[in-house]
Fold:
Amino acid sequence: MIATVFVLAGCVAEPPKANAPLAPRVASTGEASAIARIEAAGRAIYRQDMVAQRARDALAVQGVAMPLPDVGGWIVTELAQGTRASLFVEDADAQAHVEADVLLPPPGQGLPQVTLKPARPPDAAEAAMYRARQTALANADELCGAAFGTVILPGADRGWEVYLFPESDRSKVIPLGPLLRFDVSADGSRLVSTQAYSKECISMADADADLYVKLEGRPQDELPVPMDVFLSLTYPKPIMLATGGHLWLVENGRIKPKGP
Structure:
């Protein structure tokens, strides 16, 4: 699916023409169940991205430089003592090793704990996640520059869902595309499917109180996607989506159906 994105900042633009007024409506049973899953995935993407940002800040204090995205990145795992963000870096022979571990204790239970060049190999799950990340990157046609984030979540059949999205490298700029998802096999080596929520390189100035986004090219029965939820949390702006004859408000990580 390819969506064309038009962005208007400031006052909310006129919504797409509809037979009913723009008003709240009750989600169907099927919609409500799907929305709950989409919201959970979007919040998981946001949380993992925030973990990576905190870990990056902790390494910056130690004077550790970040590698280029195509030869290194973050792998996030949950441990009993907190969330661990591990910086993977590839050697000259393209073999990945753990350059640093950053353990983030639960909120209120201490500061990040940084271990540089830990004396441990990647475990099987970490290695599979990193391979899945690299498989996704190898199949990404357009990333609109070097500043992009990656999040890896558990997927179907013990595989992985890899999300790629732009990161803003300029103050007061919100990047809105491309937003990509790759489903990868359990061992991380095989691409199963690809979904482009948005392929265009689009950004807007973060200067106004409202954000209105109109998406065309989606089937009428399609719901918002996890990346819509992620954007609403990362750059807390309300997002209005038009999918066929339906309107949706995505705000603060929540999806609300609107008329008709």
Remarks:
- Residues 1-21 have pLDDT under 50 and may be disordered.
